[in-house]
Write a structure and sequence with these properties.
The protein has five helices and no strands. Helices cover 60% and strands 0% of the residues. The chain has a domain of 58 residues. It has 92 residues and is mainly alpha-helical. It is elongated.
Length: 92
């Protein structure tokens, strides 16, 4: 059934809280390189004099290995299916 396939891939049921958690995680991961560029390396001060250079630096940072770690794939864990042979008192 199509619904069963969607459940296996973690696409159904749609849980808004999980979507928001994933988006928040991605936002936090993208803040690291932007903080480094604008605050640590002084990109905010350079922004007034050389805006195109700063934008290029942000693009270089996000396209480096540091930026690639921010692309996150989230998979929702589903409980295992019930056993076809349930345990009985004599099995334990």
């Amino acid at each position: 059934m199509p619904v069963d396939m969607l459940e296996v891939f973690g696409l159904w049921p749609i849980i808004p809280a999980d979507i928001l958690k994933s988006l928040l995680l991605i936002c936090v991961l993208f803040l690291g390189p932007l903080f480094e560029t604008f605050v640590v390396e002084g990109g905010a001060r350079r922004c007034w004099s050389d805006f195109n250079g700063v934008v290029g630096d942000v693009g270089d940072t996000l396209c480096s290995y540091l930026g690639f770690r921010n692309y996150v794939a989230v998979r929702r864990e589903t409980p295992p299916p019930p056993s076809p042979f349930p345990l009985t008192a004599s099995d334990t």
